[in-house]
Amino acid sequence: MVDRMIKKSALTGGKYMSVHLRFEEDMVAFSCCIYDGDWKENIAMENARERGWRGKFRRPGRVINPEANRRNGRCPLAPIEVGMMLRGMGFDNTTSLYVASGKIYNAEKYMTPLRELFPLLQTKETITSPEELAQFKGHSSRLAALDYTVCLRSEAFVMTQGSNFPHFLMGHRRYLYGGHAKTITPDKQKMVLLFDNPDIRSALSDCYPTCLSARRSWRRPEFRHVKSGYRHLASFHLDSQF
Which segment of the chain is annotated as a signal peptide (predicted)? Predict the structure, then answer.
């Protein structure tokens, strides 16, 4: 899988970024955060919480405050928010991107804007055949191992939500590339302030690829020298100097 990803990254000399995207239905439900906010989402999330945690969120005295969760950086980043962050850092549509994830909640809707921003986006489903992947179906740990292998060898890794997967991966990557493997960790509390900017909220609501390109001339930086106007929004675990 790594060799296939490298071949698909010809525009960047075989280098690619990887993103661990935690936007599965159970993660969105557990966070108690609001995305669409319509009745369909509300029902889907209530049902998911009841299936997974059986009344935990309905206990007397329990207060759920989605806006407070968001302000405190506890909401999983939606795919479009990840795309906006990367574009804001200067990565354009020639960037080769691998997305590691489980089954994305409402994937057709939420992944489309990210794919429009990064048409070279790949997943384990796109770089393997259905026959190859069939032997791993129904085994979440084995599927995660496939993602782990590809992310491990990426030039830069982006984590979007704390969990065992990114933390183990970050530790493993410490021993690669002469100790200079790069990890981008967004500061979601600061990103909330940025996404509340009226101009950016308008871009979000319009699923914005055309509007976004009109707002700014994007330039993809070299992987070794990430120059980010959004640098204050993310912490970079790097041993090399910018």
Answer: none
Phi-psi region of 73 (alpha: psi -120 to 50; beta: other; left: phi over 0): left
Q: Diameter of the chain by CA atoms?
A: 57
Q: How many domains does the chain have?
A: 2
Within 13 Å, how many C-alpha atoms sit on residue 111's CB side? 19
One domain, residues 169 and 83:
yes
SS3 content of the chain, % helix, strand, coil (to 5): 50, 10, 40
Closest CA to 172 of 148, 142, 141: 148
What percent of the chain has a predicted confidence (pLDDT) above 70?
A: 82
Quote the domain boundaries for residue 61.
26-72
| Angle in degrees, CA 224, 228, 230, rounded to 5 | 145
Terminal Cα distance for the chain, rounded: 30
Within 8 A by CB and 6+ apart from 174, the residues are 181
pLDDT digits (tens, 9 = 90+) for 166-223: 999 999 998 888 888 899 999 999 888 888 777 766 665 554 443 333 333 323 333 3
Q: What is the mean pLDDT of residues 125-152?
A: 94
31 and 10 within one domain: no
Residues 6+ apart with CB under 8 A from 232: 187, 190
DSSP letter for 58, please: G
Last residue of a domain, one of 72, 105, 132: 72
